[in-house]
Structure formats: structure tokens, C-alpha cells
Design brief:
single chain; 293 residues; alpha/beta; Rossmann fold; succinate-CoA ligase (ADP-forming) activity; ligase; Succinate--CoA ligase [ADP-forming] subunit alpha
Length: 293
């Protein structure tokens, strides 16, 4: 089993004709993703050839869904147009929308988040590597060659740490790895992914990667305590970050002791989650658990 994405998922790409869109559509096709078309209002009715496959370009997400039966959209749209692209996909009721774009204004993300409430679309991102169910499908930019299928579920705020953790545990493999993005406002949270992994019979253990800033990891710890029966190991990026300084990701803002890596580590450890001080140590903790299952 996988969460949110599997080999039957039919994917369209918003912004398929752009540089990033075409490059990563090529890579998704190499990962055996079932890409069925793309969206670009200015190039509707044309086709693009990528990885030896001719893909139709539609004017809207709704038209693409009607013509292809698509149930996933991956958005590679410049930041200025991301809000409109998201709202278009939500209005079309696409079940899964993966927003890769970095640098989306927080005001726009807030408006999209508010618009999502009560709708039929699940959004992942923005500013994320997307989601991969190894050997089945990739919706995003995660390199598909890092790791194969296995019992580990991975949810991470950081793209590069997603890749590192997949590489470290490649001998075990993953059910699904989901990069939720590091922005202050995102569609799918650690808690959403934890719930899905808890309900997935083939995910036996979960790795959760957070980072300094905000209180998402503390809330996830409270959720794990009450709802998650599977073993969880964690890593929090930013143990060496100076206090009061905004680091990298827009969401990584620490105020006082709230939001520090240490505070998050303590919150997770208090509910029985083992937390590594480095990604490699975290992988070693997971390895011990997997060997004992």
C-alpha cells in the first residue's frame, strides 16, 4: 500500500511547457509515473513530446481531467501565478494537488489554504519536493533512483533531508515519502501524513523530519501520543542555529525557546519518539527498529 499516490494515479502537470515543468515531467516519466497531459492556457490544443511520449496540453485543469481522468496535478508555475493555478485545480476538484513552486508569497498561500477548507482537494506544498511511492509513481522532483519499495513511511519538511533519509535507509525501502514543504503555511501537515501512515497496513514504521520554527512538530508529538501505534523516529534540523535568527526556510523562525530544535526534540521524546541528533543517527535508530520488527 501507499498513501495518496500509487501506480494507478493519473497525473497532469500545470506548467508542463516551462523549463522546470518539462524537465521534471521527463524525470517523472522515467520513474514510470502515469503522466497523461499538461495544462497551459496559452498552448491549449498543442502537444509536447517528453521522454518519447506525446502529451496533450489543455487550457484548464477541468478540461484535462475531463479528457484524461487525471486525479493528480503537479504544479510547476511561477510564484506570481501559483495562487491562481491552485484555485483552478481546487475548483476542478482534483483529488491531489502537489505544488512544487518555491517563493510563493505567504499571503497567497494563506488565501489558498483558506479556500481549500471543506473542498475535495488535498494539497501538498508549496515549496516541497512532492511525493513518491517508490516503484509505483512520482509526483514531484524527488530522484526516483534513491530507494525502492519497503516498510518505511517518511514525512519531511525538508527536500534534501528527504533524499538523504531515503538514501540512508535504501536497503529497507519506503512505502511513500512525502515532502510537505518548509513554508509557514502548507496544505498537508505532519499530522495528516502520520494519520495516513498509521492507517496504511504496509507501513511498519515512520520517520518524521522537522525543522526549527513554528510548532508543527510539537503538535505532531501530541498527535502521536494519542493516535499513532507504529514506531516513529524523528529528526529536527537546526540544532546549531543561533536563537532569534531567521534561517533558510521561511518557516524556520525561532522566538525564545519555542520553536528551537531542542524544544521539539524534548516534545517528541516525551511521547516515546526517538530523535537523532543527525540524519545518520536518525537512520540508525530506524534501522534498529526495523531489524527488531
Amino acid at each position: 500500500m501507499t498513501i495518496y499516490l500509487n501506480k494507478d494515479s493519473k497525473i497532469i502537470v500545470q506548467g508542463i511547457t516551462g523549463g522546470m515543468g518539462s524537465k521534471h515531467t521527463n524525470l517523472m516519466l522515467q520513474a514510470d509515473s502515469n503522466i497523461v497531459g499538461g495544462v497551459n492556457a496559452r498552448k491549449a490544443g498543442t502537444t509536447v513530446e517528453l521522454n518519447g511520449k506525446e502529451l496533450p496540453v489543455f487550457g484548464t485543469v477541468k478540461e484535462a481531467m475531463e479528457a484524461t481522468g487525471a486525479d493528480v496535478s503537479v504544479a510547476f508555475v511561477p510564484p506570481a501565478f501559483t495562487k491562481d493555478a491552485c484555485i483552478e485545480a481546487i475548483d476542478a476538484e482534483i483529488p491531489l494537488l502537489v505544488v512544487i513552486t518555491e517563493g510563493v508569497p505567504v499571503q497567497d498561500s494563506a488565501e489558498v489554504f483558506a479556500y481549500l477548507q471543506g473542498k475535495k482537494t488535498r494539497m501538498i506544498g508549496p515549496n516541497c519536493p512532492g511525493i513518491i511511492s517508490p516503484e509505483e509513481s512520482l509526483a514531484g522532483i524527488t530522484p526516483h533512483t534513491i530507494a525502492g519499495k519497503g516498510p518505511v513511511g517518511l514525512v519531511s519538511k525538508s527536500g534534501t533531508l528527504t533524499y538523504q533519509m531515503m538514501y540512508e535507509l535504501r536497503d529497507f525501502g519506503f512505502s511513500t515519502a512525502i515532502g510537505i514543504g518548509g513554508d509557514p503555511i502548507i496544505g498537508t501537515t505532519h499530522i495528516d501524513a502520520l494519520e495516513a501512515f498509521e492507517n496504511d497496513p504496509e507501513t511498519k514504521a515512520i520517520v518524521m523530519i522537522g525543522e526549527i520554527g513554528g510548532d508543527a512538530e510539537e503538535r505532531a508529538a501530541a498527535y502521536i501520543k494519542d493516535n499513532v501505534t507504529k514506531p516513529v523516529v524523528g529528526y529536527v534540523a537546526g540544532f546549531t542555529a543561533p536563537e532569534g535568527k531567521t534561517m533558510g526556510h521561511a518557516g524556520a523562525i525561532v522566538s525564545g525557546s519555542s520553536g528551537t530544535a531542542q524544544a521539539k526534540k524534548e516534545a517528541l521524546e516525551a511521547v516515546g519518539v526517538k530523535v537523532g541528533k543527525t540524519p545518520s543517527e536518525t537512520a540508525a535508530l530506524m534501522r534498529e527498529i526495523l531489524q527488531s520488527l
